Amino acid sequence: MHRVSTTDFFTHCCKKPPGERRKARSVFLWAMAWLLVLAWPVHAQAQAPASEVSELRLERADDGVYLSATLQFALPELAVDALYKGIPMFFVAEAQVLRERWYWSDRRVATATRYLRLSYQPLTRRWRLSTSTSPISNTGLGVVLGQNFDDLRDAVLAMQRISRWKIADASEIDADVLHLVNFRFRLDMSQLPRPLQIGAVGSAGWSLVVARNQRLVPEAAR
Length: 222
Hints:
The protein is α+β, with helices and mostly antiparallel strands. The chain has two domains: 14-43; 50-221, Immunoglobulin-like. 24% of the residues lie in helices and 37% in strands. It is built from four helices and nine strands. It has helices at 18-47, 77-84, 152-160, 194-200; strands at 52-61, 64-72, 89-99, 107-121, 126-132, 145-149, 161-169, 179-187, 209-216. A six-stranded antiparallel sheet has the order 6-5-4-3-8-9. Strand 1 (52-61) and strand 2 (64-72) form a beta hairpin. The chain is elongated. It starts with 17 loop residues before the first helix and ends in a 6-residue tail after the last strand.
């Protein structure tokens, strides 16, 4: 009988040296961290408050109709970035009063427009909100009211509150007729610098519009 000797063979092809294992683990952790970073804006956007007119009040007075409103919106990220670079943003609040007619289309009896300009002063690190009943130029001419703020959030809160804004004279409103008020607040992209206007066309990153309609009941129904 011949004697057969056996030899055991071991392979390390399935095992990596400690250095390579540490390197692979680092790559994995790095990739997971980037996935979390990329997923964060989506989550933040999902949690952002919806743009809406959360409250709209109409008041009849002896001299006309007054509108008060509370708006909910967040400034577009592109607009915030432009503001910090010294580019002012312009906004428009519009109100139309329509006289309802059952036999024909509603007739517009009054229109009111309010213009706002929000700017940032890098030297003083302060925000300025200007309001006017006429379009505001970059020079600030025609501004009726100007307010300064230390924080952007406070400036936005000021834009989101409209208190007793006169939108129609008493002579324009029939006391015994139902009227409809259309209100809209928007970012005026036509006032952006020309290069930004071209890039803003069709871009959701510049979109900011909130609107709401409400009936103004006749005096007898109040």
